[in-house]
Amino acid sequence: MMSPFLFWFFALMTLIFGAAVVINRNPVASALSLVVSFLGLSALFMSLNAYFVGIIQVLVYAGAVMVLFLFIIMLLNLQAEEQRRINTLASAGGIGVAIILLIQIAVTIGRFEAARQTFPPLSASTTDDVRNIGAALFRNYNLPFQIVGVLVLVATVGVVLLSKREPR
Amino acid sequence: MDFAFVVTSLLKIVGILVVILTMVSYAVYAERRVSAFIQDRLGPNRVGPAGVFQPVADMFKLLLKEDFTPRAANTFYYWLAPCLAVMPAIITIAVVPFGSTLFGVPMVIADVNIGILFVFAIASLGVYGIVIGGWASNSKYPFLGGIRSSAQMLSYELSLGLAVIPVFLLVGNLRLTSVVRYQIEHGWFILPFVGDWTNPWKWLLAVPMIISFLVFMIAMFAETNRLPFDLPEAEQELAGGYNTEYSSMKFALYFLGEYAAMITGSAIIVTLFFGGWHFPGIPDGSHGWIFGLINIAVFFTKVSLMIFIFMWVRWTLPRFRYDQLMRLGWLFFFEIALVNIFVVAAILAYAGI
């Protein structure tokens, strides 16, 4: 449980830097904004005592995926991207779709019985969330977990095969 | 959130920060002395007795130099990058237990249940400092250094992560204080001579543990950009790599980051494989504050010895070629670490320890 001040701080950090991803014209700045946004999101997870999910957010997304993104972006010609003009019609359409989605989510959640009740505050939990996630994955859902693992492996092999240049 | 907790935490943070920063400046001095010793030179010996005030002189030199920003550089990111290089290295130390207890206060800043994952997560952010620095300088050699660094760090993070899994198979918990507690009861992972040391399975387990330790240490060399893996800054190829365009205090921050990463890396190796603050025969801090202090001293002595090994390796081995580095990481260490996990799991299942 953390103080409301920290919640608002990290929530605003996530949202502002999330918006900055779209608004920034420089792709490197966008990528770095996404990293900061992920850090805020991970702090929000941790405030719910979900330390494992929070840290995996940083480890996988901020630490590995975004480094690869940055790796690719830096090899591009950024000047051309920065000078591209904003298409007014397209951005208006995008904002419209976003607003419709927001209204839809608000209406759907408003219909849920559970969403209208106030939740009791989280007690200082003594359970080990890493242990709980491990037990859930490897005891209750072991078979689906293994199947997902095989699927990801197949996808990886496929990507390697597709991107490999044939020697001629 | 009580008052005593806040005060002791602040004291611990300030204390560890002072210790780490002092260690960094003296690690630079030690590096120069050790390299001189290995190459049969004298090294810095003019400033003060045997040159012990050299770090102070170095600090003034770096502070007083002109802080030069290249015109073509992307100023904001150029300033941001050195900070990003230092912060992760120093944040990581927060979860490492550097002593038992002192006046009943546990000597670890944050004893979180995701200990080692926190270390990996924050350490993986360290690559941004180098990549952004290389990119923002807007210059060829730093850029190549940054690109090399990101590929190298991503490759070796896998070996790093896989190498510690055997440790946690035994401990059954990601908390770093539990790792130390386990080693006090059952013996250090690579030298199991306390606790139930007559058990032959324990000694059999020490073999995969030593392999695990070697893979972890070598991956740590790569993560901290130290020779034989200092491809990102290879002087002869890249004229200094990602920090070529940096001068004065910004260059010093990169230097600080590298040495701080080395110190926290050593601290993690000591915690995982050498029993942390434990030394056989010395009780923990609950037996009196003097033992608490001795525990802290033991920990930092072990860390210093580990740093010496880092330096010894740096000045003994030549640099790898880039393709050799990648092949070594992906085709050798990765496989060894993977097989090692199965070996440890098999021993554990068979012996039922």
Strand-helix topology:
The complex is a heterodimer of chains A (168) and B (353).
Chain A: H1 4-23, H2 27-47, H3 51-73, H4 78-83, H5 88-111, H6 113-116, H7 129-140, H8 142-163
Chain B: H1 3-38, H2 54-64, H3 75-92, E1 101-102, E2 105-106, H4 115-136, H5 140-171, H6 176-186, H7 200-223, H8 235-238, H9 248-273, H10 289-314, H11 322-351
Antiparallel strand pairs in B: 1-2
Could you list some keywords that capture this structure?
A: 168 residues, 8 helices, B: 353 residues, mainly alpha, 68% helix
How would you describe this protein?
The complex is a heterodimer of chains A (168) and B (353). By secondary structure, chain A is an all-alpha fold. Chain A has eight helices and no strands. Chain A has helices spanning 4-23, 27-47, 51-73, 78-83, 88-111, 113-116, 129-140, 142-163. The mean pLDDT of chain A is 84. In chain B, 68% of the residues lie in helices and 1% in strands. With 353 residues, chain B is an all-alpha fold. A two-stranded antiparallel sheet of chain B has the order 1-2. The longest helix of chain B has 36 residues, at 3-38. The model of chain B has no long low-confidence stretch (mean pLDDT 83). Chain B starts with a helix and ends with a helix. Classes of the chains: A mainly alpha (168), B mainly alpha (353).
The coarse overall form of chain B would be globular
User: What is the count of helical runs of chain A?
Assistant: 8
Low confidence ranges of chain B: none
Shape of chain A: extended
| Strand runs of chain B, count | 2
Content-based structural category of chain B: mainly alpha
Cα-atom radius of gyration of chain A: 21 Å
The profile of the biggest β sheet of chain B is: 2 strands, antiparallel
Unreliable sequence segments of chain A:
none
Give helix % range of chain B.
55-70%
Strand portion of chain A: under 5%
Strand order of the largest sheet of chain B: 1-2
